[in-house]
Amino acid sequence: MPQENLFDVSATGDTTGTAAEFFPDDLTLPKLRDAAQRCRACDLYENATQAVFGEGAQKSEVMFVGEQPGDQEDVQGRPFVGPAGKLLDKAMEDAGIDRSLAYVTNVVKHFKWQARGKRRIHQKPNSAEMTACRPWLDAELAVVKPRVLVCLGATAAQALLGREFRVTKQRGELVESPLAPNVIATIHPSAILRADEAFRDAEYAGLVEDLRKVAALI
Ligand code: URA
Ligand code: SF4
Predict the structure, then answer these.
(1) Measured between alpha carbons, how far is 100 from 63 in angstroms, rounded to an integer?
(2) Which of 129, 137, 140, 155 to mutate to test the pocket of ligand 2 (most atoms within 8 A of CB)?
(3) In which domain, by residue range, is 20 found?
């Protein structure tokens, strides 16, 4: 690496700040949601339509955290409204959880994507982007104070529970965490949509089984 690049953070891809710089004076959900639209703490806002903040009542007992908005979410400005969201709705219903009692959000608030033909293909946010965005989620946790926190998929689980966390091994188990009195992780509904057709029903049943444990806690 040339000498002049040694302290150039852009060379490492860490061109990020922190979302906390964009916080409103009052940390209420409507003010936070509004402020997130002006966030420039990482580059993801540039190619996204809008920030997709969490949705649900402030008094929600359960909070679901996914990775980041997808194509539909980016357009509609609401979390989990696309294909993965529809599947999550169905799984919640099958598990006996009323989505209207849940707060649903993501680790990262802007859609990261790459064009493939006319489609926008989801790209996993990197750790600098997740770190930059984290204050929004921490604020949501501080305001909602859910009794049950559900991490959907490895990205959310590792961001919230540590890099060592393995969803494949530890899904459906209660995890000790300062984030909420009850914390649990399960697979991401997108993983079911991507799964081979032969395994899809079993994967879905596994998600519902994990969510039944959540239902029992609320
Ligand atoms: N996948 C996610 O992780 N979050 C959404 O909001 C939609 C799809
Ligand atoms: Fe801010 Fe998060 Fe959007 Fe990056 S992804 S600009 S940190 S809201």
Answers:
(1) 11
(2) 129
(3) 3-217
